[in-house]
Amino acid sequence: MVAPFFAPAMKELRMIKRLGPGKRLSQASIHGNTVYLAGQVPDDYSGDVKAQTKQVLDKIDALLKEAGTDKNNILSATVWLPNINDRDAMNTVWDAWVPEVGPARACVESKLADPAILVEIAVIAAIP
Question: Which of the residues 1, 27, 95, 96 could staple to 21 if both were Cys, CB 3.0 to 4.6 A apart?
Answer without folding.
Answer: 1
